[in-house]
Write a structure and sequence with these properties.
The complex is a heterodimer of chains A (255) and B (250).
Chain A: H1 4-11, H2 22-43, E1 51-52, E2 55-56, H3 77-88, H4 91-100, H5 131-151, E3 154-155, E4 159-160, H6 164-181, H7 184-192, H8 201-217, H9 220-242
Antiparallel strand pairs in A: 1-2, 3-4
Chain B: E1 3-10, E2 16-23, H1 30-40, E3 60-63, E4 66-69, E5 83-87, E6 94-96, E7 99-100, H2 103-110, H3 130-137, H4 147-151, H5 153-156, H6 168-178, H7 187-190, H8 205-209, H9 216-232, H10 235-244
Helix pairs in contact in B: 6-9
Classes of the chains: A mainly alpha (255), B alpha+beta (250).
Chain lengths: 255, 250
């Protein structure tokens, strides 16, 4: 008996008749747009300001801008490696970019072009196992982003107020928090790694936490995209306000 | 009665697609139409089936390129007049027509670790709390149709990996053992070695095609990968193990 792949080669690349290419192309294009935008924006600090009144672009939160760095150096470099690593090793994004960029495979039951395949067992893809490390870092960023959102309601010299930027930053902090909470790795840490939920009160509590994380995890894809869009929109909005292209609607008089 | 235009693979690997027009009625599934084809035009057509209720896992095939159960694919899901291609599973050796040799899966099944149950209670019974076992009940729904194995590109496009990769159906079985509240296997026996877990790149096709709706990737494969991360790649756990020492099984 011959291996069925011979049959497959005989049949052609795929027999699917639906538009299986649409999702990988659309998601790949969306992701690529974000990567290009965030790279250009994150590194462009010369005449392209990232602070406007009480608002700070999330690409730069928390702002680390030591005096010893040269003028061209972007403080975003201190920040962006963390979300970049978290998203690059995220189980959802892996699904997306393995399909869209590596065509491994581009869609289910569609032949892939690679002649050899070792998956995540060898370099470089074995590095995907660093997702746990990036999760720990991402968890530290949640309070930092909420601090940035809270700070956006306080205009120095004027005090408490609210603007469109404040609302955008709150939404952004919430969406990034939900994306992080829905992480498969967090789901494992909080309770998934246990075999006995009933053993102690603490393990029962961890089971409840596992249930909660599971709710967020079931929509991980949606949180991933919503938070990606929100962080890009937050940066773009604050950049446009900071550089005078648009005016922020707010309750303050001096901004 | 409307006609279904079928394109069915006939013969072994030297065979070809043959076109048939078969009458069908409202409410029929593809397996019904294939049976009518067998009864009226192609008496020697080989097709494996049993329950016709989506529970035996026998009638797996690729319909319009998608791995599915023939008995769970309703005719009204096709556009009237559309050509319906019915092919055998392409990952496994073809025997004839729509029947493939799935015995590789049985050989992999023999390599799976068995449950090693802990000692019974004083009264001779073993007890499990529902809260501990309900997560695993999803895994018991598997009907072994091997559609997930068929669609998995690790072996579909690279049959050389069949020597080292167990496939999604067996990752479900490994998860079932690994998460069992009474299992005493050391973690390494079930999770880390010899089953090719790290060949999976999480593209979720197994989950997409599972007729039982088992969340194979999210509830079996990723948790197994995470248990492996516990052992080898978690910086905090490594530090804790270094300082306090660490056990094998939770």
């Amino acid at each position: 008996m011959a291996q069925a792949t011979e049959v497959q080669q005989r049949y052609g690349k795929t027999q699917r008749t639906d538009r299986w290419w649409l999702e990988p192309v659309a998601l790949g294009a969306g992701f690529l747009i974000f990567v290009i935008y965030s790279t250009v924006s994150g590194f462009n600090v010369g005449n392209w300001h990232y602070e406007a009144g009480p608002y700070l672009s999330p690409f730069f939160e928390p702002l680390i801008n030591p005096s010893w760095t040269p003028e061209w150096f972007s403080p975003a470099i201190f920040i962006l490696w963390a979300p970049l690593g978290f998203r690059a090793t995220c189980y959802y994004y892996r699904r997306m970019y393995y399909r869209s960029f590596f065509m491994s495979p581009m869609a289910c039951a569609v032949s892939e072009p690679a002649k050899y395949y070792t998956g995540e067992s060898k370099f470089p893809f074995i590095l995907m196992n660093s997702h746990r490390f990036f999760l720990y870092v991402a968890l530290l960023f949640i309070p930092v982003l909420w601090y940035g959102a809270a700070k956006s309601f306080w205009m120095p010299g004027e005090g408490l107020g609210i603007g469109v930027g404040s609302i955008i930053l709150v939404a952004n902090a919430f969406l990034l928090m939900m994306f992080t909470i829905g992480c498969n790795s967090l789901r494992h840490i909080v309770g998934g790694g246990l075999n006995c939920f009933s053993c102690t009160n603490f393990t029962r509590t961890r089971r409840k936490m596992w249930d909660l994380v599971t709710v967020a995890n079931e929509r991980h894809k949606a949180w991933a995209w919503a938070s990606l869009v929100s962080v890009g929109v937050s940066d773009l909005y604050i950049r446009l306000v900071a550089n005078g292209a648009i005016t922020d609607i707010n309750t303050w008089t001096t901004f | 009665m409307p006609n279904a235009h079928l394109k069915v693979w006939r013969g072994d690997t030297g065979g070809a697609y043959v076109d048939y027009d078969v009458e069908y009625e409202e409410g029929m599934v593809v397996l019904d139409v294939v049976h009518r084809l067998q009864a009226t035009q192609a008496g020697d057509l080989a097709v494996r089936w049993n329950c016709k209720a989506g529970k035996c896992g026998s009638c797996s095939a690729e319909i319009n390129g998608k791995p599915v159960l023939q008995c769970m694919t309703r005719m009204e899901t096709f556009i009237p007049g559309e050509t319906i291609t019915v092919a055998p599973l392409k990952t496994f050796p073809l025997i004839r027509d729509l029947v493939t040799d799935v015995s590789w899966n049985y050989r992999v099944a023999e390599t799976m670790p068995e449950l090693k149950l802990s000692a019974p209670d004083a009264d001779g019974h073993r007890r499990m709390a529902q809260i501990d076992i309900d997560r695993e009940q999803e895994f018991r729904k598997c009907i072994e149709c091997y559609i997930c194995q068929d669609v998995c590109h690790v072996i579909r496009d690279h049959p050389e990996n069949m020597e080292k990769f167990a496939g999604p159906r067996f990752f479900v079985q490994l998860a079932n053992v690994s998460m069992h509240p009474l299992d005493q296997n050391p973690a390494k026996a079930t999770v880390s070695h010899g089953f090719g877990l790290d060949y999976c790149n999480i593209t979720k096709c197994c989950t997409d095609v599972c007729p039982e709706g088992i969340h194979i990737t999210d509830n079996a494969i990723i948790p197994l990968k995470e248990r492996r991360v516990d052992e080898y790649y978690d910086p905090v756990k490594a530090l804790v193990r270094k300082v306090f020492g660490g056990g094998d099984k939770k």
